[in-house]
Amino acid sequence: MTPLYGIETEYGLQVEGKGAEDLVAESRAAVNAYRGRFASPWRYRDEDPRNDMRGFHASRLRYDPEDAKFDNPAAVPLPAEDERADHVLVNGARLYNDHGHPEYSTPECASLADIVAHDKAGERIVLACAQARAAELGAPVTIYKNNTDFHGSSYGTHENYLMGRERPFGEVIVALIPFLVTRIVYTGAGKVGVEPRGKPGTFQLSQRADFFTEEASVDTLHRRPLVNTRDEPHADSRLWRRLHVIAGDANLSEYATALKIGTMSLAARLIDDGFVPPLRINRPVETIKEISRDGSYRWPVRLTNGRIVRATEVQRAYLDEARKRFAGDRGDVDWTLAEWSAVLDALDEDPMQLGDRLDWVAKKALIDDFVADDGGDWDDYRLQAIDMAYCDIDPAVGLYGALVDAGQMRRFVSDDAIEAALDTPPSNTRAAIRGELVCRYAESIGNVAWGTVVLRTENDSWVADLDGYLTPEKVAQGLEAIGRESDLRELIKVFGSR
Question: Which of 3, 6, 339, 463 is deepest in the core (most CB within 10 A)?
Fold first, then answer.
């Protein structure tokens, strides 16, 4: 089966002259400032975030009380399509407002080059929206690719992976937790301070680690779990499940993004394949915080049998098994295995040699230089400003962008590939069909979701079901049909039912 994955990024938003209570409206306005071609609204009837893969339906979802403080009880609720300001783009992606955060969900991708290019294209699209909104307001609008406002609130960078349905999800949880707890040693975005009050004095590997309180649950906004159990496959639910990973940071490094997706994809394949990790972590929720805050970079992990190992040793258990089962499978697999091994070796030897690849190391080096030059210490609140400046996605002012311009960050894709991803979907996933339908028939689309496009003629509505288009061969057939049929009513016969 062709691997399929995607990334959902909620961006931090700051608007000069506006307070936290204004951010929902400002996020919506920024999304609505998008100038490209798109279709809307989103088809929410295809989603049920309370459906749990453990076999039940949650009565409710928890909401973060910190966010609720800034809700305006007098505000008149908007219809969902207006509140979310949904935009489904010609590149197959989704752009929308998620409660005060512009969110960009990449199209479904089947290669690391595509996922990195589309993740980076999302940065450019959201930045263009912010710049358009700034022109409307006559005031600066700043976008951050990070996961915390340093005042106790967190927003997510979620990953999605197509998995088979055969293995009981309880076994999936057990197999996933050791991997997710320890991968922050190379996927972490780096963070100054400890939440919920944003107190400085500590440098962490991960921006998200502070915010996990459960091992597994269906929630994503509060009481966040290491393993999210939401059951929304966006595919044939008899065959597939979508692994919805919320225990990840927002990476700016192209290399770190590729390694994060590559290693998680292999771990998901291992688990699909029946792999049972030879170790289990004692107190995993506490352990991810301990790893994140360990300034010695030894990262000791206590197992349920009492043995103490390094976080890198836990990762090697997955790496070694993936090498046995998948080496030589295809290019992305071999790249991932080689780089996974090299990064773990470097982390064991001296993590700071990875400053050209890992976000947390690059950010730590910048802050170390500031502290050394300024003669300050780690209790200086200005360090959080450096942290935020690293995450500013405007390449003209952001510190990550400055490192790229100076040739100090390893690239994974070219600028041409990112530019192409702004309006071109991956050619070998169903995103290509959805994007082509948006490109040709946006005005005839009634609503749209990942696996469904509702097409309307003057007298009828038809549902184009894309759930069966999960292989490159099927995608090619769908694109050929779109190119062949010039009349919408004839095309509907290919894809849809009344």
Answer: 6
